[in-house]
Amino acid sequence: MNMNIADIPFSRYGSYFAFSLDRKTGQLMLRDLHGGDEAPSNIFEVCLMQNGVPVDYDLDVTETRLRLVHRNQPEQWAELCISDEDVIRGMMNGVSLQLTALKSRYDSLMPYREGQWEYHLYTKEIKLMFTLLRGEVDVDAPWSTVGNERIAITFNPNGRKCSFAIESYKTVWMRREYDDYSAAYERVRQHYEQWLQQMTIVPDRFEPSRQLASYITWSCVVHPEGQLTDYAMYMSKNWMFNIWSWDNCFNALMLSKRRPELALAQLEIFMAHQDHSGIYADFINDKFISFNCCKPPIHAWAFTQMRQQNAKFNEPAIVANVYDSLKRATNYWLEHRRSDSYHLPVYNHGNDSGWDNASIFHEGVPVESPDLAAHLIRQIDILSDMAVELGLMDEAKKWSKTADEMYGLLMERLYVDGTFVARYAPEDRIIEHQGSLILLMPLVIGYRLPPELTDRLVQVLIDKFEAPYGICTESMDSPLYKDNGYWLGPIWAPVSYLFIDALQNNGYNELAAALAHKFMELTLVGGMAENFDPFSGKGLVDPAFTWTSSVFLLLAEQFAMAVNGKG
Question: Which single residue of 221, 244, 422, 470 could bond 360 by disulfide (Cβ 3.0 to 4.6 Å)?
Fold first, then answer.
């Protein structure tokens, strides 16, 4: 697969390194993703040179190799691969490769041993070792009191053959033996091929989407470090390089059947840092844990789905551990997000819902929302079943009673004149805007709703939200609908999957299959973007998102026959 690295970063499984084209300048950048998406990631500009002068080049990029080819002399090139999680290997023929540091005051490069230079990257709290393995290198790094005035490292300045390594580490460089470039490249190529082979098989029409989704999910994993207790699948290596606590559920689902240990790790990273109050962090990276917001309680549903895909998750110790964590997470909502037992839990910010700027939040917060109540009711119902499985009969009865009470409150407070509404909690009044798809989320507890109500919700879904490429997040006839409006219209993968799953569970199989097919078609137009235009299919915001990729692969697994029949 040939890749445009202006949209899709070149990286690999386990690595904090990435290469991208700067969207404004077109400059090739070597990036480091430590510190999460609030930290600048560009660390070096990368330039192809000949006789000390920059030359035009074309990029030839596959999943595992990045080659800069001299535009006028294609037999001359420089090639890079991320051979190991913390190691970049490079080789070149007939041209030079120059790396110019985008440094802060204290970032400094110093000679280490012959043919080696250590770069202290203060802003990232890491070190890089540059090792010349063959050929020549020119280092331009004049010192000025507390740091280098500039840093430019030019490999192969005389245009012959050259190879090198760049390694990342926290404290001390560990001496290693270097194999030749071809062997190093083969390691990463085989690693990706093994990942790709484990991805679900799809009809030929959707093979481009399968390959793109497979690469994005593989390349967006980072290795355990700092706050990350295990391998974490970041949401993207473009701009959102953290792991979020509902995005992780969809990625875990995709991984469950074939990579159960990695799937479970996506949940356990948040379980390991669960607050004493029970709340899961909003996001985590190697350096930071943020509790500023949280995410909707879909985690018990996700774990139940994982159990259906792989018996590994039915092991009693795993069930007991997850139950304990989910119990505390659920009690957080019941004890810390409601004013009293006569009101429902609230979202304190749009970001808590995952639907950051949805129209129900335009009049202020906190908000009583039917999606939160529905997710909680389903989570509590699942906890009741898990408690029975674990022999905790008293807890099971308590959960069942709580779910019944919560359902009663949902219908009493948020079901008005045949439709679900949201309430602005401080004034206990119904929110005026009723055009958000979030108000139809009680479909996830269709097993509790009267059939005629479920039918009505599904009809509203079809009439007001179904577009050529899927379901809009704001009604098409809403005055608040906005092109590229984030949660005010565009299609989102996780919401699509939640509704498709709910429709299937309630017997609307034909509609579920049709929406699955629409989403798969959408990826052929808009790729694996963060969200999509409902009418053109254009990918919006971040063009390389993991939960979009995971949802595509999940739908491909579940609806392959239906899709094949239509294709």
Answer: 422
Between the two ends of the chain, the Cα-to-Cα distance in Å is 22
Which residues is 78 bridged to in the sheet?
A: 68, 92
- Cα torsion 455, 460, 462, 465 to 10°: value is -150
226, 233 Cβ separation under 8 angstroms: no
Model confidence band, residue 108 (pLDDT cutoffs 50, 70, 90): very high
- Closest among 463, 491, 494 to 477, alpha carbons compared: 463
Mean per-residue pLDDT for 491-505? 98
Which of these, 56, 19, 8, lies nearest to 166 by C-alpha position? 19
Task: Please report which helix (H) or strand (E) contains residue 499, including its range.
Answer: helix 493-505
Beta bridge partners of 98: 47, 154
- Characterize the bridge pairing of strands 415-416 and 419-420: antiparallel
* DSSP class of 14: B
Q: Name the residue with tokens 């971040």.
A: 542
List Cβ neighbours of 32 (8 Å cut-off, separation of 6 or more).
Answer: 16, 17, 18, 41, 43, 121, 124, 126, 168
For helices 260-272 and 316-336, the axis angle rounded to 10 degrees is 40
Q: Whole-angstrom Cα distance, residue 428 to residue 431?
A: 9
pLDDT digits (tens, 9 = 90+) for 334-393: 999 999 999 999 999 999 999 999 999 999 999 999 999 999 999 999 999 999 999 999
pTM of the shown model: 0.96
Run of H or E including 100: strand 96-101
Helix-strand-coil split of the chain, %, nearest 5: 40, 25, 40
* Residue 541 backbone class (left: φ over 0; alpha: ψ -120 to 50; beta: rest): left
pLDDT, tens digit, 9 for 90 and up, residues 393-422: 999 999 999 999 999 999 999 999 999 999
Rounded Cα distance, 236 and 234, in Å: 5
Contact assessment for residue 273 and residue 289, using Cβ atoms and an 8 Å cutoff: yes
